[in-house]
Design a protein that fits this description.
seven-stranded antiparallel β-sheet, six-stranded antiparallel β-sheet
Amino acid sequence: MSSAPKHPGGVMCMVHPDDVKRFYEDFYRFLSHAGITSVKADAQFFLDEVADATQRRSMSQVPQIMFHSQLSTAIPPILLRNSDDYFPNEPDSHAWHIFCNAHNSILTQHLNVLPDWDMFQTSHPWAFYHAAGRCLSGGQISITDRPGEHDLEVIKQITAQSIHGQTVILRPDIVGRTTDPYTSYDEEAMLKISAFAGRHKTGVGILGLFNRTAKAVAGLIALEEFPGSVVGEEYVVRVHPTGLVSPVRTAGHPSPLLSMTLPARGCLILSAFYVERVIVKRQTESASRETIRFANMGLLGKMTGAAAIVGTRITSHGPDRIDFIATAKALGTLGVFISTTTTLVSIEKDVLVMINGIAVPRHTVRKAPVARSLHTSPPAGALRVGSSAEDLRVEEAEDFVLVDHDPRDAPDLQGLDLSISTESQHGHDVSNCKTTAGHLTSGTSGTSGTSGSTGSTGGGTPKTAPDVEARTRQTSTGETFVLEIDIEAAWRELRPEPGCSSEVVVEVIVYV
């Protein structure tokens, strides 16, 4: 050890310059043997206490570092602290922390760095708020929980399991940053943080909505605010964690507007999924044509589940078979949005699901019905769709649709009202339905979002709400639903050989 410099709190011991290399080699070898795979160099400010150092600025955002090593793209991206520390015991710091990071990313997105929004605690009252910001950031996610004080429901929403049993995070390809740099912190408006996952046109635009005020705020969201949206293309928007799904909408002018209200300190994550159309020509005397729409919704129940999508391919085999092939980099519940114009799809007869070429057990596939929410004026957290602000003031404005999902995906939303009105505006009777945290159930079916009974291999669905199913079949105008495939449960049960790949291929064959 070198001579110890004086410090107000005592004495600091330093490694002699000749022994620095050996010290770190021994230190990291010890950590590696203990199973540690990542190290954070914290408390760097202590270097400022070295009395005879010529350069005593240690934080990574000093100009000498930012405009030298962080500009070069010839090296892998460097992890960069994107803001000040996380202060769990400072109530006024939490909304400010997300706001600052979202605005700092306007600069750091142009550097060769991965933004680090600092660690947070999953058992904290602001845990969901902070977790949403970290998932949108595009950087690392680290937690600083006290031993034994972990909220596993929050952790499940920010992580996924790989096919090799590793816990991974789902990072967007484009880092999250504010969409409006000119909105001050004191304005009573939503903070919107945008990110993007995937390729141009077919990728997923992600928009995080954060209310940093102590009262509810409302706002309008245009489809064009989702990064990557292309004018003339169709999209469907899903909200995490409520499970709300919008009708299919076309990006263009006038743009469809989403109107919503967030409760105090509330936040939601919206993802706009590209919809691909397949036109089927019937071999009948009338030679009728039908349009069937598909969208890969990624892993449901994850804040940025869209980032698990590696690729999607849809092919048509003649007039009666469509293959939907999705590749994912992690396990979970894969959501496939399907909308038909005339055909009614039966999971029992018309759908075959395979993972890496092996048919999955029936109980791992379920058909989540879609029922319309009939609000004429949205409560806190409800969303409505229109083509203009004027549309949103009339009773005929279409609302978001509610997809049946597992209520365990949704944490406490702190007063978010997700009840469905029983007053019909569109001629449908939904008096037999009820909601709990966005979960649609039937008053007579007795189901609660659990998987259905076991049966034949290759598909499966639980008992769906009878009134929803009956209305769909009576109209004979097609149907809209989300096919939920528990690829994690199927993988554990089938135990296919993963080989050298870290990806899982899910093939959905629909016979129409």
